[in-house]
Specification:
By secondary structure, the protein is of the alpha/beta class. The chain folds into two domains: about 5-20 and about 270-369, Aspartate Aminotransferase, domain 1 (Alpha-Beta Complex); about 25-265, Aspartate Aminotransferase, domain 2 (3-Layer(aba) Sandwich). It is about 40% helix and about 15% strand. The protein has helices at about 25-30, 40-55, 70-80, 95-105, 125-135, 155-160, 210-220, 230-240, 250-270, 270-290, 315-330, 355-369; strands spanning about 10-15, 60-65, 85-90, 110-115, 140, 145, 150, 165-170, 190, 205-210, 305-310, 330, 335, 345. It has a seven-stranded mixed beta sheet, with helices on both faces. α4 links the parallel β3 and β4. The structure holds pyridoxal-5'-phosphate.
Length: about 375
C-alpha cells in the first residue's frame, strides 16, 4: 500500500522544539493500538506515571500526562486551581510567562505580575518583597524560558514559599529531561511540561504533577472546574485506582511514544543525560565563539538546551534559517517579541544534544555565513 508520507525528509531539529526523536520512540508509536481500558495498556499507563515520578523526584500520586501539548498542561494547571478573584502572581521574563498571565487572567484570577528584562533571570529579592506585601494563592514561574534561553532560580523561589499557603506552580516544558528538577525538594506544588523538548518524543502530551496540597485545593473549589476536558477531578479516575473509569479516549499511540522516551532517559541515566546536554552546550558555545557568534544570556543563568545567540552583523536572519533548512536539513529558531530579528535560538534538546549535531550545525553556519 502506498504510504502518503514517504516523501517526508528527516530534519535535524536544533530549534526551540520539537527535538530529534529516537527511532525506537517512533517505532513504539507505530505498534498496534490497544484499547484505552485494556489491562495491558493500564500497565503502560502505570509505567509512565512511575517514570515521570522518578525523573521529577516527586512522590506526588497525581503525576500523569495530559492529552495535548505543553499549553494544555499550562491550561490544566491553572484551570483546576484558579477561581474568580483568586490572587495569582506570575513572574515574567519572556513569552511563556506572558502566556501564563493570559491564561490566569482569562479564568478571572486577580493577576499581579513582576516583570524582568528578557534575557535576564527573575530576581529572587524582588519576589521576596512582593510576597511580603501580599498573599497569593498561586505563584507561577517558567523554569526554562524558551523565548530567551534563561534558567530561572526555581529552587530559590521555592525556598521563599516554603511553609506558606501559596501554591507554587512551575512551567517545566523545556527544562524537564534536560536539567535536573527535584520537585519535592524545591517545594514545587504544581508542574507541567511537554513531550517535544528534552523528553524527545513528538508533540502531543503534557506531563503534569500536583502535590497533595494542590490536589486538596482543587477538591476545595467553591465552583466546578470550568473546563470539562481538563478537569482533573474526573481525569484522576482514569489514571488511578483498581478500576479505571473512562473520561476521554486516551491518545494510546502517543502514550506508547512517551513510555519509550522516558525509558530511554532512565536507561541512559538521568545524570548522564543532563551531563550530555551540558557538554554539548559547551561544545556549541566554544564553536560559535570561533566563528564570531556570541551568546545573549549570561553564563550564570544560561540554559544548556536553549542557546540564544546574537545574529551576526550583516547576516540575513530569515535567509540564513531558510538555507540551513533547505540545504542542510537543520531547523533553528527565530527570536520572539523584542528579540525578533536580533537572536537565533539554537536548541540542544534531548536526543538532539549530540556532538555530531553540534558539528553539523557549526559546519553549516560557517558555510552559510
Ligand atoms: N511553556 C514553554 C516554556 C514552552 O517553551 C512552550 C512551547 O514552546 C510552551 C509552554 C507551550 O507548549 P506547546 O507549544 O507544546 O503547547
Amino acid at each position: 500500500m502506498k504510504n502518503l508520507l514517504d516523501g517526508i525528509e528527516k530534519i535535524t531539529f536544533m530549534g526551540p522544539g520539537p527535538s530529534c526523536v529516537d527511532d525506537s520512540v517512533l517505532k513504539a508509536m507505530a505498534k498496534d493500538t490497544l484499547g484505552h481500558l485494556d489491562p495491558a495498556f493500564i500497565k503502560i499507563m502505570d509505567g509512565i506515571k512511575e517514570n515521570l515520578k522518578t525523573l521529577l523526584h516527586t512522590e506526588n500520586r497525581l503525576t500523569i500526562p495530559v492529552s495535548g501539548t505543553g499549553s494544555a498542561g499550562m491550561e490544566s494547571c491553572f484551570v483546576n486551581l484558579v477561581e474568580k478573584g483568586d490572587p495569582v502572581l506570575v513572574l515574567i521574563n519572556g513569552v511563556f510567562g506572558m502566556r501564563m498571565q493570559d491564561v490566569a487572567t482569562r479564568l478571572g484570577g486577580d493577576v499581579d505580575t513582576l516583570e524582568f528584562q528578557w534575557g535576564t533571570p527573575v530576581v529572587v529579592e524582588d519576589v521576596k518583597k512582593k510576597l511580603a506585601d501580599k498573599k497569593y494563592k498561586i505563584v507561577a514561574v517558567v523554569h526554562a524560558e524558551t523565548s530567551t534561553g534563561v534558567r530561572n532560580p526555581v529552587a530559590e523561589i521555592g525556598e521563599l514559599l516554603k511553609g506558606s499557603q501559596s501554591i507554587y506552580l512551575v512551567d517545566a516544558v523545556t527544562s524537564f529531561g534536560g536539567i535536573e528538577i527535584t520537585m519535592d525538594k524545591w517545594g514545587i506544588d504544581v508542574l507541567y511540561s511537554g513531550t517535544q523538548k528534552c523528553l524527545s518524543c513528538p508533540p502531543g502530551l503534557a506531563p503534569i504533577s500536583f502535590s497533595d496540597k494542590a490536589v486538596a485545593a482543587v477538591k476545595q473549589r467553591k465552583t466546578k472546574v470550568p473546563n470539562w476536558y481538563l478537569d482533573l477531578t474526573m481525569i484522576m479516575n482514569y489514571w488511578e485506582g483498581e478500576t479505571r473509569a473512562y473520561h476521554h479516549t486516551a491518545p494510546i499511540n502517543m502514550l506508547y511514544g512517551l513510555y519509550q522516551a522516558l525509558y530511554l532517559i532512565v536507561e541512559e541515566g538521568p545524570d548522564n543525560v543532563y551531563k550530555r546536554h551540558m557538554e554539548n552546550h559547551k561544545l556549541l558555545v566554544d564553536g560559535l565563539k570561533e566563528i564570531g557568534i556570541s551568546m545573549l544570556v549570561d553564563e550564570s543563568c544560561r540554559l544548556p538546551m536553549l542557546n540564544s545567540v546574537h545574529i551576526p552583523e550583516g547576516a540575513d536572519d530569515a535567509g540564513v534559517r531558510k538555507r540551513l533548512l533547505n540545504e542542510y536539513k537543520i531547523e533553528i529558531g527565530a527570536g520572539l517579541g523584542p528579540l525578533a530579528g536580533k537572536i537565533w535560538r539554537i536548541g540542544l534538546m534531548g536526543h538532539t544534544a549530540r556532538p555530531e549535531n553540534v558539528q553539523k550545525l557549526l559546519g553549516a553556519l560557517k558555510a552559510v555565513l
